[in-house]
Every structure is written in structure tokens, then in C-alpha cells.
Specification:
By secondary structure, the chain is of the alpha+beta class. 22% of the residues lie in helices and 36% in strands.
Amino acid sequence: MRRATASGLRHACGCAIALASVLVPAASAGETIPTAADGQQKEAPETIDMISLVRAWLDTFPEGDFDAFPGEVSPDFVLRLPFMPPGAPTEFVGRDVAQAALAGSAKGRSKLVFHDVVILRTEDPELLLTTARAEAKMANGRTYRNAYVMLTRIRDGVVVEHIEYLNPLAVMESMAD
């Protein structure tokens, strides 16, 4: 089994992360992938292309456009942003709450466009890791640029959790007058 290397992940997201030891390549339908907990093999979902679903998620979720997403978003969806600047919320619980927060954020900028996207499966068949860069033009005229490490949990085609790690300094800089 080929594992992702730490240097490859650093190149993809512009930051060093130590998750490479738990990453595995994407499994095709019917292939098996190991689980971290018990070492037993689990079958990859046969009807859901998880990589394509995460790509579609990246195109729609930053704008809060959950209705345009080809999968579903759980009513109990949780959005976690643990590295947001002080004073900013770091967790949004519930589909409607997260959607409203993202749509509100999108009003202050152009569409957030991701590039240099790398999506990897993990040993947990529901969890995908994404590294990417993104940028948008803010309403104040500044350009927002950031590097991201994201964990997206999709259960039976339904997004149930999204955790996004980003540089809070880039957020603060883009909002300065």
C-alpha cells in the first residue's frame, strides 16, 4: 500500500502536517481499505464517489449554497473552524445555522475559489482529508489568500461534519481597512 508523504502534503498545502502516517490512497468501489481502530478491512462504498463528492462540496459550501451540492447536508451538520481569529465563532451546529453563517460571510467577498486541491481518503471510510489554497476579493478591495487543511465526514452521501484549519492571520489581514 502506498502512503502519502509528509513532503508531498507540505507542498500541496504550504504547511507541514503530521497526518501522513494515517493516509491511504483513494479506494475504488469494491476495494477494501483498512480501519485504524481494529485493523480489519472495510469495503469502500460502491455507489458513492467520495472524491467527486468532496470536490463538489468545495465548489458550493463556502458560499453556503447547500442546495447546489449534489449530495445532502445533514440537518445535524457541524462546521468547525478551530483556528479562527479571537472573537470569531469556531463552531456552527446545525445545517441552517452553518448555511446562514457561510452565506453571510460570502456577502463580504467574491466567490472563494480553491486551487492546488489534493483530496485523500483516510483509514476511516467516512473521512476525507483535503489540502488546498483559495482566494477571493474582499468587499474592501483586499485579496484574501489562505492555505487550508480540511477534514470532511460524509456518511452514506450525506455531509455530517466539516473541519477547516486555516491561517487566522490571513483572515485578519484581509479584513483590515
